Amino acid sequence: MTKNVQSCSFAWASYGTSYETDESGRKLVFKYSPQPNTGPAPGSMYHTAMGSQAFEPNTGKYYWEFAANLDNMKIGVATKECPTGSEMGYNNHSWAVYIQTGECEHERQERLRSEGVQRRLWRLVVPISGGRFGCLLDTKSGTLQLFFNGEYQGMAFDEGSGIKGKVVYAAVGLAGVEDNNRAIGFGQKYCLNIPDAAVPKISSVEKKVIC
After folding, report:
1. Structure pTM?
2. Left if phi > 0, otherwise alpha if psi is -120 to 50, otherwise beta: which for 59?
3. Which of 17, 48, 70, 73 could form a disulfide linkage to 88, CB 3.0–4.6 angstroms apart?
4. Measured between alpha carbons, how far is 159 from 57 in angstroms, rounded to an integer?
């Protein structure tokens, strides 16, 4: 069960040139950029965008939810020191779930290598059309749990992840490139914060079976 959890909403407040927002500030849109046939350069995708609400240590549990129309993205948290022009999960200031693989990244150095991958969410399977992604942050223990379309997917980051004791912000990193490296058109891929989303429940069985 999820008890004493505060559902929150926010605008996107810190992001680089890869993105733009709508008038409400809650919809983050990946801007179109042509890519070479060889694919995007390392570090040129999944740049970190952060929400406006700061989550202070030992202030309780918080839940937020996104609607996204893609699976080529990363979701997690970051500190204000996280550079918005670099890939999320590839530095000491961000913790990212790579949605296409379920890999939970922090200080990762290179794709296809295990260094910097703290764990993998084996249950997570997301269609290319995306869906609703939820994050449950416990600011006392420094843990982050992930949900997809209201279903619990597992503990993305545990007490030893490095989140504990830090002020963090909700964060995402989007990419507008398909598997064959074709760029997707301007303004078509986005991530929208859902205000005051209902907090899903985690059954006792799920707690035991899904790590």
Report:
1. 0.89
2. alpha
3. 48
4. 13
Torsion of CA 168, 23, 28, 50, to 10 degrees: -10
Decide: 194 and 133 in contact? Cβ < 8 Å: no
Residue type, 71: D
The alpha carbon of residue 148 and the mean position of all alpha carbons in its chain are separated, in whole angstroms, by 12
pLDDT at 182: 47
**Range from 57-71, 90-104, 193-207 carrying the lowest mean pLDDT:** 193-207
Q: What is the mean pLDDT of the chain?
A: 87
Q: How many residues does the chain have?
A: 211
> How many CB atoms neighbour CB 176 within 10 A?
25
Question: Between vectors from CA 71 to CA 129 and to CA 199, what angle results, nearest 5°?
Answer: 90
Residue 168 DSSP code: B
CA distance 133 to 127: 12
Is 206 a residue whose pLDDT tops 60? Answer: no
- 68 close to 190: Cβ distance less than 8 angstroms: yes
Q: Which residues lie below 8 Å from residue 207, measured CB to CB, with a gap of 6+?
A: none
| Count of other CB atoms within 10 angstroms of residue 42 | 10
Residue located via tokens 């990762």: 108
pLDDT tens-digit series, residues 152-168: 999 999 999 999 999 99
Q: Which residues of 178-211 are buried (b: 16+ CB within 10 A; e: fewer)?
A: eeeeebbeeeebbbbbbeebebbebeeeeeeebe
